[in-house]
Structure formats: C-alpha cells, structure tokens
Amino acid sequence: MEKHLNILQNYFGYTSFRPGQAEVINNIDQGKNTLAVMPTGGGKSLCYQVPGLAMNGTAIIISPLISLMKDQVDGLHALGVAATYINSSISSAEQRQRLIAMQQNRYQFVYVAPERFESGSFIHALQQTNLSLIAFDEAHCISQWGHDFRPSYRSIVPILQQIGGNPIIMGLTATATPEVIEDIQSLLHIAPANTVHTGFERKNLSFFIEKGVNKIDYILSYLKKHQGEVGIIYAATRKQVEYVYDVLNEKGYAVSKYHGGLSEQERQDAQTAFIFDQTELMVATTAFGMGIDKSNVRFIIHYAIPMNMESYYQEAGRAGRDGEPSNCVLLFSPQDIHTQKFLIEKSEMEEEGMQREYQKLNKMVNYCRTQSCLNSYILNYFQLGSATASCGRCSNCLQQGELEDITEEAQMILSCVKRMRERFGVGLTAKVLKGSKDKKLIQFGLTKLTTYGILSKYTEKEITERIHFLLAEECLAAEEGQFPILKLNQKSMDILTGKENVTMFIQDVPTVEKADYNTDLFEALRQLRRSMSQELELPPYVLFSDMTLKEMARYLPE
Ligand code: ADP
Ligand code: MG
Ligand code: ZN
C-alpha cells in the first residue's frame, strides 16, 4: 500500500518492509483483527506503529515491559509523533493529566501495562477516547501455556467488551507454540487466516562452534577483526569473567564486567556504561542480560558451554536485535562439560530434576558436537517449525568436506556397545574398537570380544569422534549421570538391522586446530598434541604414549 510505504519512508526512514510487516499492516488496514508471530528483532513494533499513524484515533499498546515503554515513546517523540505512556513509574497526578489528554484524543499512541485495565478510571477514559487499535505486545503473556503467563493480561479480555468503539485488536509475539497461538486467537477473536507467521528463524544470526582453540587468543583475534563492534562475552564462572575482563582491559579495550560477586552499585554502573555505549564490550556471567534490550549487539561469544540450550539461545539471541547480521560463537572445550556437571551435582535438586538437567546438558553437548547445520539443530530443538537442511552460514555449513556413508562403521560401533552389554562409556568403547592395550580392557575381559580391534584402522580419536557423532544424531543413547554409559535405542536397532543408513560429514581438515604453518615440524606436532589431548579429554601424557609420531603426522597440514 502506497500510504504505508510513505509512512515507513517519511517517518522511519526505512526503504522497505521486513517479511510479514506489509501483510500485517494490510490486514489492519482492512479492519481485521490480526496476530503477528515474528522473531525477536523482526520488527513487530512497526506493525502497529505504521497503521497507528495511518489511522485516525488513538492506538493503545499494552506491554508488560514497563522499562521499554519510555524508550518507545521517546523514539516516537523524536519522529514528531504525539505519544505517551501511563504506568506506575509516574505520579498519580501525572497519570490523571495524561488520561485527560487521552480522552481529548491528543495522542496517537498510548503505552500501558496490563494492570492499568484494573483501574476504573482508566476504563472510563478509554470509553471516551476515539480508539484506532489495541495492540497486545508480547501477546504470549495472555496464555497459560506460554512461558510468561500474566493473569492481569488475560483479565483484559472480558473488559474489551465494555470499551466499545470497535478498535481493531492485534496480538504480537516472538514465542508461541501452537497451543499458545490458538489460545491468543480465541481470546482475542483473531481468525487463524489473519495470523501472519514468519517463522522463528533469526536469519541475521550466524552460529559458530570453535573447538580446540586457545580461547583468549581466539577472542583477541576476533576483536581485532571486528573492531568497534559491540559484543557480550559470556563466561561460566565469576573467575572466568575476572580473567577475561583483566586481559581485555589490559589490552586497552573499553570493557565492562558483570557477575553476582560484584556489588549492586558496581553491577548497575557496568550495565549503564554498556547500555549507553560508554563501553563496547561486556564480559559477564548469565546473571547479565535479563530485561536488557540493546539493539546493536553484533556478537555474543560464549567462553564456555552453557548449561542448556534454553540459556544458550536466550543469551545468543541478544545479538542482532536490530536485524543486522550478527555472530554467535561458542568456544567449546570438553573440560567445560565437567564444570557444568559439577554445578548440577552441587545444586540441591532432587534426583529427578538432576536427571532432567543432565539430559538438557547432553543436548547442549550434542549441539557442540553435531556435524549438521547448527541453525537446524536449534530450530528442531525448540520445535520452531520446519528447518531447512542447511542454513549455509553456520560453522558446520561452511565447513569443507564430504558426506560419507558410515553405516557399516556405525553397525560395528553399535554391536560393540551391545557386546559390552551396554555397561561402559565412550572412552572404553573406543579403546575396544581400536584394540587398545589398555590394562582396563583386560581387567574387564573386553579384549576377548569379537569387536575388539575391529576399527583398528582408525585412530582412537577418529573412533571417539564417530561415537560422539552417533550420540549427537541420537543413533545411540547415553544414560545420564556423571559418567554417561552408552545404551542402544530404537534407532540403533534400525541401523543394526539395516533399516536405516548413517551418513556423516567428513571434514577435509581434521577438527583439531591446524598447526601454524610457520613453526617448525616439532613445534607443529607439539601444538597438535595439545589440541588433540583437549579433544580427547585426556591428560597430555596419555597421548604421548598412545599416539605415534607417524599417526600424528597424518593431521599435519600439507
Ligand atoms: P521486535 O519487537 O520484533 O523484537 P522491533 O520492533 O523492536 O522488533 O524492531 C527491531 C529493529 O528493527 C528496530 O531497530 C527497528 O527500527 C528495525 N526495523 C523494523 N522494521 C524495519 C524495516 N522495515 N527496515 C529496517 N529496519 C526495521
Ligand atoms: Mg518488541
Ligand atoms: Zn547451518
């Protein structure tokens, strides 16, 4: 529509609509109640701001985020639009004044918190106002099935009848499962056909897993390549935060730190400095970020593996809220899994809760080890609709290599697990398949198995990699606990009986960090050994004896 495009360009200075926006706005233009389901940063605000500007009357925006109302209103003022907010942060005298101005139709937009509808004087004022539309921002809060249910949100529904004037009703949300969507549709009288669903994929985010790198070196080189960009580095512990902060501070970066060990004032100052662009970088534990809406964050680096996909996606999702391309990098080292396991052990949870946490951590580890598209993994995990096979921009999609059929090897691994009576973990299983001389194997009588040494043409590392791959693809299960034990599942059976094939992406360059070309061979081997011992979760001396120089040389770059 011409008039909407004009508003977009003249008021907001944008050239074109983002996916879904024009459709939502056209619906509103035709007087239809509409639900917009778009990812964070997708541009939901414009979906009510543009029609609100195109229509006569006052648009009421209901939002549970009081802290963000002022920003939105300031933004509209800067564009020369009459807007205000009415919430508990202003005096009651001021509230009364704004209500009177609202009844005189002096605002084009009025932002309110859901609790406002409990006030008789507010309802009365609404009845006197010429309303254009009522938008429920964060509409999932209206549903008991949502993750952030607000009873006050739901109790607005019956009140809508009393308001009169037939304003158009809109719902907007980024987090809606099918149940929540149906709930919003029925409560707000929105026809399913008038629901605009762009999917949840955050197309501007690129996900990367970096394995076996020196983390600080990685961060420093990332910062050098991305100078002037705003970013958050999440660490697992306060100690890690202090360490990373000190290094960056010493190098002269404008950096803040945030964790639970700092005083309230220190945390407040750090947050303010970061929000108002006095510092570009924030090093923090997961304590940082709740309720923070900073739109120009260009990258999130995780210094260590988070405890589950939920926290990971929430933290990584703080990048790119303005819709611009942004990176989410996770620095993975297997030792960090132990930190998370330790935290679970130490939490005073009941057995059942603990098992659930282990399971979630396991999915997080699988994310780090999967060889398929990271973006698809995320979309599948959260059941955010059908994922395309590959996003083409995550570290796995960008990896060079070939897809190979490994069904036969998978069968060997699975039958080995079966022969070991599903009583052992990854380490011992790999040793059996390799045909290792490890004393433990003799002790447990494992050298007599028919699968002993059946994969001896591979290194133990390569075998381990394949077992982890089978785990990540859920072709094999792991019993939860501190030392996961390999178990067969239905998919294992299907593979063993030849009903299902397994393909694996074999990288041209091994996952261990490439040795530096400039160093001499000895130094290169040393580096390689170091990164490989990290990969295998073994102390360095084990590799010394287990891996011959010749074997190691296979991994050297040409
Ligand atoms: P959401 O509420 O969906 O998370 P916002 O409405 O806060 O997203 O918008 C995110 C960012 O995208 C804002 O900075 C906004 O100005 C910008 N934006 C929205 N629509 C467009 C557009 N059509 N073109 C360019 N930028 C846009
Ligand atoms: Mg929003
Ligand atoms: Zn991908």
Brief description of this entry?
The protein has 558 residues and is an alpha/beta fold.
- The residue ranges in which pLDDT falls below 50 over 5 or more consecutive positions are 510-519, 538-549
Average pLDDT rating: 87
The main pleated sheet reads as: 7 strands, parallel
Query: How large a portion of the residues is in β-strands, by DSSP E?
Result: 5-15%
> Compounds present?
adenosine-5'-diphosphate, magnesium ion, zinc ion
Alpha-carbon distance between the two ends: 59 Å
Strand line-up across the major sheet: 3-4-2-5-6-1-7
Overall SS class? alpha/beta
Number of strands: 17
Can you count the helices?
Answer: 25
Measured on Cα atoms, how large is the radius of gyration?
Answer: 28 Å
Question: What proportion of the residues is helical, as a percent range?
Answer: 40-55%
The coarse silhouette is: elongated
Enzyme class: isomerase
Domain Helicase ATP-binding: 25-194
Keywords: ATP-binding, DNA damage, DNA recombination, DNA repair, DNA-binding, Helicase, Hydrolase, Isomerase, Metal-binding, Nucleotide-binding, Zinc
Catalytic activity: Couples ATP hydrolysis with the unwinding of duplex DNA by translocating in the 3'-5' direction
